[in-house]
Amino acid sequence: MSQFWINFTFVIGTFLVYSWIAVWARARTTREFYIAGGEVNPVVNGMATAADWLSAASFISVAGLISVGYVNSAFIMGWTGGYVLLATLLAPYLRRFGAYTVPDFVGKRYASKSARVVAVLCLVVISLTYVIGQMTGAGVAFARFLEVEADTGLIISALVVFLYAVLGGMKGVTYTQVAQYIVLILAFTIPAAYLSIMMTGHMLPQTGLFGTHTGSGLTLLQKLNEVVRDLGFQDYTADVSNKWNMFLFTLTLMVGTAGLPHVIIRFFTVPNIRDARWSASWALVFIALFYTTVPALAAMSRLNLIETFYPNGTRSAPLVYDERPEWVRNWEQTGLLKFEDKNNDGLVQFYNGANTELPKTAEWAKTWNGNELTVNNDILVLALPEVANMPAWLIGLMAAGGIAAALSTASGLLMAISSAVSHDLLKNTLMPHLPEKRELLYARFAMVGAILIAAWLGLNPPGFAAQTVALAFGMAAATIFPALVLGIFAARINSKGAVAGMLAGGLSTVVYIFLYLGWFFIPGTNTFPNTPEHWILGISPLSVGVIGAAINIVTSVVVSTATEIPTEELQLMVRRVRYP
After folding, report:
1. How many domains does the chain have?
2. What is the pLDDT of residues 425-480, one digit of tens each?
3. In Å, what is the CA distance from 25 to each residue of 40, 167, 168, 408?
4. Domain range enclosing 48
């Protein structure tokens, strides 16, 4: 069987499983559509939560980012730490409150339609910006493994999500995400174990990272440092140059993660507070299984990739381009790997062209004319089975895993948007007398609309698509998280304070990100330079979310203190949420 048909079998086979689950678990009531009936087993919910959280960015991109240098481990620390923050600080209390959605909690806690509407707007902005990356990731996986256009793959992904999300609602999404977690974790860990055995003799990648490199006798990290240093790149284990910004970036990811609405609503689907706590614990186990594998996979994959272009491990004998492996030819077709023979010698010169110390000898100076190979970090995981010459079935499994990661998070984000529009904007704001059957119909219409918008954004990504993660996490950190924390732990905060805080935190974050990433144009200049010396107090646009959160909290406290005290009934409700 050809590689194409193996890939096709894995992808279509998983799609059929997702579709069967959607029919089996279809929602018949609004409670099933919004929170899966509130009766999901904590282990099942923990696995679904992990799939909801492990997005295309986690599956496809994080290992590639960390492969550049372990300084990018801030992504893992921030995301995992943020989940711990959510599990301990928010999840049990939100489940005790008994809301359907995040805006539902905000609206009831602050007894304000205005607060509810602002929360809906924030949720839609966060979810739509984040879902662009999921749809794009699915399109890339389709383009490579099923040999179709990326746009065609994106449309197929939208149709699959349409089937199980519109029909099943949260109930269908929950059980589909369980299947998707199983697919993605197998697709990620089996190739990682295979590569670890091949390079270090360790079956567990987590121990292989600190093991001995089979070919050289050095430790794996020493060998990787030696190879990348020889090519002019920074050592993999190099120290962080800007610890202040890394600290802020990690905090932004933590607070942003704890404020992501599509993850929060998962804790509304379990029967009680005890199950919410157990659900959070199980989810952390399932997430840890993935994230503890990432650093090892990143280091081994980068070393394996470089050894493809320098088979003897040094710059002295680069790969002849016409003799390149089949996987290089395949990925060149996607545009994620490009070669330009600048000196017409037919050799693949792959090195850090920005490093002024290279080339180091007169002989190399005659032949080198700048780095000739561009490798997008996003191919590091998806191309791994091909680069390492693994069995064909592992390539098919990787295809199914990449698509599963993208679809699981996309469905959770679209579910959050649909619930917020139908339950919070329509039922609880514009149409308070809407009957349940009509509300369920509108919820499905809202899901269809969300899928169409997400597909359109994926096909026509806005100019800031590359920074959507910064915008999504920054907005979640600056708006949703403070409103929830203050709503649970500060009975004195009223609706005016909550609305003012969300607006102040959200607007300050968006303006700062847009200024430095080039979307606001200042007379006499193109943009504010996005360089450390021009950032305010050295704060990167990627790290500003936690500052927005601080602005939100201060604004909420000041405005609430200057205005009326919440009613005794509201304050009693807050105390009941906190204390059993």
Report:
1. 1
2. 888 888 888 888 888 888 888 888 888 888 888 787 664 444 566 678 889 999 99
3. 12, 9, 6, 16
4. 3-22+40-238+246-300+387-578
